[in-house]
Amino acid sequence: MYRYKYKNENDFNFRINESKRILEKYPDKIPLIIEKAKECEYDIEKNKYLVPKNIKMQQLSFIIRKRIKIKNAEAIFVHINNTLPPSNNFINEIYDNNKDEDGFLYITYSTENTFG
User: Which domains are present in the chain?
Assistant: First the structure.
């Protein structure tokens, strides 16, 4: 199972205090940790994000796609707890069902060449 770099670099108490602080300051947002899968060649410029509760998963995938500057011929696959979440679900539903005990929603992305 993938171990998030953010979890390795920050202890549990720091992470839980950080998510509580964020949620108190921005109650209409969801705190995310987004990291690439081991086999993915595309880096993302930062790993901590704050997104509105009312965006859908497909919108989040588009945001990640723009941040990693992926080629048009490649698809992006977003995994939460080793599963592909439904693209038409709102992020707040996914957060409520999949958030980590530290208060963050951890997301892994990977790519695959879909056109040859």
Answer: 5-113 (3.10.20.90)
Bridge partners of residue 62, in order along the sequence:
none
Q: Are 33 and 14 in contact (CB under 8 A)?
A: no
Q: For 30-82, what is each residue's pLDDT tens digit? A: 999 999 988 888 899 899 999 999 999 999 999 999 899 888 888 889 999 98
| DSSP type of residue 90 | B
Instruction: Give first-to-last CA distance, the chain, whole Å.
Output: 29
Average pLDDT for 107-114: 78
CA distances from 62 to 9, 15, 56, 106, 109 (A): 27, 26, 10, 17, 12
SS3 26: coil
Quick check: 104 and 34 in contact, CB under 8 A?
A: no
